[in-house]
Structures are given as C-alpha cells and as structure tokens.
C-alpha cells in the first residue's frame, strides 16, 4: 500500500506524518495498528496513531527522522506492510541472548504486556554501544526477577 504525505511538526520537538482518515483506517483494517513503514525505501517499525485534534498520524522522533534522512515539510512516499515480528519491534541481540541464557528473566519478560515489552526493547535499542546494551539487558533481567515490571521503576531502582 503506497501513500504520499509530508513531515509535519507536532509538539515538544516531535514530528509526525499525517494520514487522512481514509488512509489511516484502511491501513489499520488491512495491517493492524503496528506496521512496518518504508519511507524512501528505509523500513522502520511504527504505530498508526489517532487523536481528536490530529486525526491519523505516525509519530516521528528525532532519531527516526535522522535515520530516514528527512526534514520538516519534506514530501514522503510511504509503503506499509504487516509487522510480523514477535514484539512488533526489532529485538536487540543483546537482550535476546540474556533472555535465552536466563530462563527466569525470560519467563517474567513473557508475562509483560506487549507495550511494556516494546518499552524495554526500545530502551535497550537506543544505546549506541554494544556494552551499554549488554549492561542494560542484564539490569532489566535482574529487575524482572525481583518483580519490577515497569521500565520507569526499573530505572529508578538500585
């Protein structure tokens, strides 16, 4: 499915790709809310969001904007496909290995809601250095085993 749109400013240093009501509802009906979107042939995981004021849109943060090499008011050609990944996000290899080698942490991770899993995956993926991703994965695994399931609480707890 191919759609044309532009990158628009949203709130708080965020950007968005607006979709018409027809486009947004058609994408959700065909692929679901969580999709893989291609912009200028670069794929990324995204969610089709909606609000009373904005209608349907895709939120774009500064890292995604940089990865896609797009700027405010750029004309974009978007393609959508069903996100068939397990967590609707790309699992960092470091977290995957930690969970494979720690069955207890893996068990507790699997009990989390999909949204909490994606929050953890996103938090670990944001780290640029491999060692930082390993350290974060190990810390998350330990917190899960102590029954801490909220990322904000995990980051607060010593």
Could you explain the architecture of this structure?
- By secondary structure, the chain is of the alpha+beta class.
- It is built from seven helices and eight strands; from the N terminus they run βββαββββαβααααα.
- The strands form two sheets. It has a four-stranded antiparallel sheet with strand order 1-8-4-5.
- A hairpin with a 5-residue loop joins strand 2 and strand 3.
- Helix 5 (114-125) runs antiparallel to helix 6.
- The longest helix is centred in the last third of the chain and has 16 residues, at 130-145.
- The radius of gyration is 17 Å and the shape is elongated.
- The mean pLDDT is 90.
CATH architectural name of the largest domain = Beta Barrel
Helix and strand composition category: alpha+beta
CATH homologous superfamily label of the largest domain: AF2212/PG0164-like
Biggest sheet, strands in spatial order? Answer: 1-8-4-5
Please provide the count of β strands.
8
Beta-strand portion reads 25-35%
Low-confidence runs (pLDDT<50, min 5 residues)? Answer: none
The name CATH uses for the topology of the largest domain is Elongation Factor Tu (Ef-tu), domain 3
What coarse outline follows from CA principal-axis ratios? Answer: elongated
Number of domains: 2
Q: What is the CATH class of the largest domain?
A: Mainly Beta
Reported for the largest beta sheet, the result is: 4 strands, antiparallel
């Amino acid at each position: 499915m191919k759609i044309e749109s532009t990158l628009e400013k949203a709130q708080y240093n965020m950007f968005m790709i607006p979709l018409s009501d027809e486009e947004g509802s058609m994408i959700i009906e065909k692929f679901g809310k969580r999709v893989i979107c291609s912009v200028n042939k670069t794929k990324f995981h995204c969610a089709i969001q909606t609000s009373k004021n904005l209608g349907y849109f895709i939120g774009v943060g500064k890292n995604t904007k940089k990865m896609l090499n797009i700027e405010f008011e750029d004309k974009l050609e978007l393609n959508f496909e069903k996100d068939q990944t397990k967590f609707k996000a790309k699992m960092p290899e470091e977290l995957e290995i930690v969970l494979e080698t720690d069955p207890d942490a893996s068990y507790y991770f699997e009990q989390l809601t999909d949204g909490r899993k994606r929050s953890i995956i996103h938090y670990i993926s944001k780290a640029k250095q491999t060692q930082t991703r390993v350290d974060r994965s190990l810390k998350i695994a330990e917190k899960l085993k102590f029954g801490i399931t909220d990322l904000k609480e995990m980051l607060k707890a010593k």
